[in-house]
Amino acid sequence: MCVCDVHAQGDPYAIYNLGFMYLKGLFVKQNYTEAKRLFTQAAEKGFAPGWNGLGVMYWHGQGLPVNYTAAVEMFKKGAAANQSDSLFNLAALHVTGEHVEKNETLGT
């Protein structure tokens, strides 16, 4: 079964993975618009890594304008579900003070 078939059935993990493939251009033509759509769909289905994918896109300006406020918002949504990449990215922003209040004790 192709990931595209599973995506058609609405599996949020497959939807996220397809979004990641579009984000990176893995076996498909890179398409940030499609990546954003798929990450949003996965996140709205309760798959927290979708929030992290959106946060990364805002953080690095991948197909979206760089927007650190939106990136933090997406990472916080993922972190609320204890999603490890979102927690890491949110902490990385706070430790460096990159466009957020510097807080080296966050989470201790």
Which spans of ≥5 residues are poorly predicted at pLDDT below 50?
none
Task: Give the helices and strands as they follow along the chain.
Answer: HHHHHH
Helix content: 55-70%
CATH topology: Serine Threonine Protein Phosphatase 5, Tetratricopeptide repeat
Q: Name the overall outline.
A: globular
Structural class: mainly alpha
In CATH terms, the superfamily is Tetratricopeptide repeat domain
The CATH class designation is: Mainly Alpha
Major β-sheet annotation: none
Describe the model:
With 108 residues, this protein is mainly alpha-helical. It has one domain: Alpha Horseshoe (Serine Threonine Protein Phosphatase 5, Tetratricopeptide repeat). It is 65% helix and 0% strand. It has helices at 3-8, 12-24, 32-44, 49-60, 68-80, 84-96. Helix 2 runs antiparallel to helix 3, helix 4 (49-60) packs antiparallel against helix 5 and helix 5 (68-80) packs across helix 6. It is globular, with a radius of gyration of 14 Å. The model has no long low-confidence stretch (mean pLDDT 88).
